[in-house]
Amino acid sequence: MDFFSSMNISSSALSAERTRMNLISSNLANANVTRTPEGGPYKRKDAVFAATPVANPFSRVLDGATAQQVRTVGVSEIVEDQNPPRLQYDPSHPDANPQGYVAMPNVNTVEEMTDMISATRTYEANVTAVQAAKSMALKTLEIGR
Length: 145
Prior knowledge:
Layout: H1 3-29, E1 45-53, H2 58-63, E2 71-80, E3 86-89, E4 101-104, H3 109-143
Antiparallel strand pairs: 1-2, 3-4
Helix pairs in contact: 1-3
């Protein structure tokens, strides 16, 4: 594996975590939305990550069994949470049902904040990995001096 492979892997993780962070932000922003164009309250969204093999150069393919199985990460799909909306008693709300309950989004603010911390830490770890790979490449170039 070369330096560019490690940077490519970390950059794919940075992109995936950025998508995850955007979804978390959207979930938090819509935590009280009771009307959507699809009808009903907002539904929480989450990213599904999937590992994909890095395309090996021709020389690595010839190595066969000795080639390392390196994988990048990407968002394979964005899914809506299928949990039912939570019902909140508010008979004065315009979207209240005849019993006075309003269907609120299935967004748990504490869970979203925990996910945000996790996404931030993973993003920071991958930035550190890119910086380490860059530093190693620069040190390698200094050998020839």
